[in-house]
Design brief:
The chain is α/β, with parallel strands linked by helices. Helices cover about 45% and strands about 15% of the residues. The protein is globular, with a radius of gyration of 23 Å. The relative contact order is 0.08. This is DHHA1 domain-containing protein.
């Protein structure tokens, strides 16, 4: 294994990944076709692109499917499986069905080999073990953090790199997926994420810069970049370009300057004036690409925006050096909505308890944006991190719908318990439905139970510590 030559991080994981790659190479001759199934966000699209190139280099017949999780896994995979030529291999990239569904699938189609190249927490079937034709490379099974240490595209890149060393030329794709999934500064990357970024940098596929990180608007002139920033969101500017221009003029900085034009003194003056130390850091660019596609965070954001509804168009973006006008307009609309909605979120009345915050967005923010706002409110730490966040309101079905978020600090303070544990306890007490993972989830409850929920939430959260 090449990576053993200069760095070993998790030997058990690396050994299993290497063994899986060798098994795939040994088995490939028997497969009538390979099925690649991946998610539709930036992490999934870039993972799918890596697997596609890997299979092309091997000269294998394959079909590729982008799945946005809009239907149940059981309906999706069983209907799709009817058309597969047996024996085949299914590669799940940046998503995976539960262990129970995989076991059910293999009972019906025993000649399918399954390769799980996904980083989300795996839902094991407690009553059944996987047969030998399932190769589960999920890094969380080996004690790795599936976000901070190894996102989906990093895992898929490492797998492709094990299959064929020529695939090292795809490291730049991993940078895109990381930018979209970690939502963090490059200097905070760890473990395998950091390792792959370093490789892409050494190969000259990416460039690393220090300075202002107004993620969301890095490609724009400075006043617009600051007002468009969604990571960090700048509360004092409220997305207002005029406020950004006035602030810059006060600092004797030309608002027309690009972020790359600023000297160290100007950078420090902007950061200090806004009192946002997280505005300063490192960012990645692609030397041959322009505009939105020149910057990794913005590139990833655009792919995620496009990919949900049109995965083929998102794939096409990976081959371009500049963004078509229609997609640039789409990007601005989406980004500006996030900034506007975060501003609205901060101004709305909130129910605050010892352990939680409730924000009713009914008729304030479009329901399609609730989950997105929950994520960016959490990432930007614009509410008390020691509390769970519930944002939502009345849904058209007549129930109340909530996006629920917890910070890493909240989970640390509650014995490793987070969103999924809270939602489970709520639905046990009040009915309804929902689920998620430690940091994020969603749920629905009867409106009549909302007052009870806000009154009992502290007891609910306290109880998860004892379960």
């Amino acid at each position: 294994m090449l990576y053993h030559l200069y760095k070993m991080i998790n030997q058990k994981f690396e050994n299993y990944l290497e063994t899986t790659a060798l098994e795939f190479l040994e088995n490939k001759a028997k497969y009538k076709e390979i099925i690649s199934i991946h998610h539709t966000d930036a992490d999934g699209i870039s993972s799918g692109a890596i697997i596609k190139k890997m299979l092309e280099r091997l000269g294998l017949k394959f079909k590729q499917y982008a799945f946005n999780l809009d239907v149940s896994w059981k309906n999706y995979i069983f209907n799709l499986g009817k058309s597969f030529k047996s024996p085949c291999a299914i590669i799940f990239s940046d998503l995976e069905p539960s262990g129970a569904i995989i076991c059910d699938l293999l009972e019906k189609y025993p000649n399918f080999d399954i390769y799980i190249i996904d980083h989300h927490l795996f839902k094991k079937d407690p009553l059944r073990e996987f047969p030998e034709n399932v190769y589960n490379c999920n890094p969380t099974l080996f004690g790795l953090n599936g976000l901070k240490e190894i996102v989906g595209v990093t895992l898929n890149y490492l797998f492709a790199r094990e299959i064929d060393e020529r695939n090292k030329d795809l490291a730049w794709l991993a940078a895109i997926g990381m930018g979209g999934d970690t939502l963090d500064h490059i200097n905070n990357y760890k473990s395998y994420n950091k390792l792959v970024i370093e490789e892409a940098l050494e190969l000259g596929q990416i460039e690393l810069h220090k300075g202002i990180c107004a993620f969301g608007g890095q490609f724009e002139r400075l006043d617009k970049a600051l007002s468009m920033s969604i990571l960090p969101y700048i509360p004092s500017l409220e997305g207002d370009r005029d406020k950004a221009r006035i602030l810059l003029q006060k600092l004797n900085i030309d608002p027309k300057l690009k972020i790359t034009d600023l000297n160290s003194a100007q950078i420090n003056n902007v950061v200090n004036e806004l009192n946002l130390p997280e505005l300063k850091g490192e960012y990645i660019t692609f030397p041959k690409k322009k505009g939105i596609l020149h910057h990794v965070f913005e590139y990833a954001a655009l792919i995620s925006i496009v990919g949900h509804d049109n995965p083929s168009e998102a794939f096409k973006l990976l081959t371009l050096n500049n963004v078509p006008k229609n997609l640039k307009i789409k990007y601005y609309k989406h980004n500006n909505a996030i900034v506007s909605n975060l501003t609205t979120f901060l101004k709305l009345k909130k129910i605050v308890t010892k352990s939680a915050i409730f924000v009713d967005l009914t008729n304030k923010i479009d329901v399609s944006r609730w989950s997105n706002i929950g994520s960016f409110a959490t990432i930007n730490k614009i509410y008390d991190e020691e509390k769970a966040l519930f944002i939502g309101g009345m849904a058209k079905e007549g129930n109340m719908k909530f996006s629920v978020r917890c910070s890493q600090l909240f989970i640390k303070n509650h014995n490793g318990k987070g969103t999924n544990a809270i939602i489970k306890e709520i639905t046990n007490r009040f009915g309804g439905s929902g689920g998620g993972h430690g940091l994020a989830g969603g749920m629905r409850i009867d409106p009549e139970n909302y007052p009870l929920l806000t009154n009992e939430i502290d007891d609910i959260i306290n109880s998860i510590n004892n379960n």
